[in-house]
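JOB MANIFEST
job_type = single_chain_structure
chain_count = 1
residues = 342
[input]
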Amino acid sequence: MRNTSLLAVIAVGCTTLPLAASAAGNLNMICSADVVVCEQMTTIFSQAHPDIKVNMVRLSAGEAYARLRSEARNPRTDIWWAGTGDPHMQAADEGLSQVYKSPLLTQQHDWAQKQAEISGYRTVGIYAGALGWGYNTKLLAEKKLKAPACWADLLHPALKGEIQIANPNSSGTAYNTLATLVQIMGEDKAFDYLKRLNSNISQYTKSGSAPVKAAARGETTVGIVFMHDAVAMQVDGFPIETVAPCEGTGYEIGSMSIVKGARNLANAKVWYDWALSADAQSHMKDAKSFQLPSNRDAQISEYAPRFENIKLIDYDFKTYGDSAKRKALLSRWDKEIGASAQ
């Protein structure tokens, strides 16, 4: 699915991003969406703004947050686009992102505006998607396994070694899963659940969408991901079934943040405003991005999982977007789960 030739043109490693740029035309961006979406959105923006050269690097949300922290005294990134909102909120909490109120903010759904408000306008919602999983229907049938419909079903001994999920230290998807389970079950019960689930995990991946891609390839049976990532595999023709857990589930608000101290601040604001427009967000579905866009007038793919059909919890973005809360949960995960991970 990677367009490596396009990546070679528009993306370079963060270590080689320009240290200085004229106000006329550079924008250094971290993108935490799927690489195909990152490439497409960068290309479309460049066509609309040919005077701005976008230097894009793709990092998972957890990696992007870590990069911003490491660059805090000497920022080389101007804008961070996409990825789960929790790390964006944590960056805002630590003052790594800059206050900005776009003139397009009022065009966004209430959940996107609320994300901006509770962050002190240091980040904003750009899309949303519910947490769940995808399973390979062929493998399930071959192994005579029961289709998992609930979080509890993932603990069945028959699924030993059949599940993949990302590592919450690097993946916003996996951190969202951790925070979701804590909110559904309470922290101690959630960690007891995760310890038992660990017996069924074959791999903790770096990227949040990697588990369902592995399921699509037949390398694992179940991948715990955001549902739109499972839908993307299904639309591509893979034997993947998408599941919204019966007990309820959390959701992400994919977000966008301008980096505090951005060297190309004016161009960062150009991207920010463009990315909140209905026209820009309507293009995401063309890259098989099946999230729900934040702009009320943006076109939504017919395949996008709709919130009204999913049992959602009242996800507490403020609490679980707090950097101290993140640090505490990840420290406990490392000690109780990561240390004995498969």
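[summary]
Confidence is low (pLDDT under 50) at residues 1-23.
The longest strand covers residues 124-136.
exit_status = 0
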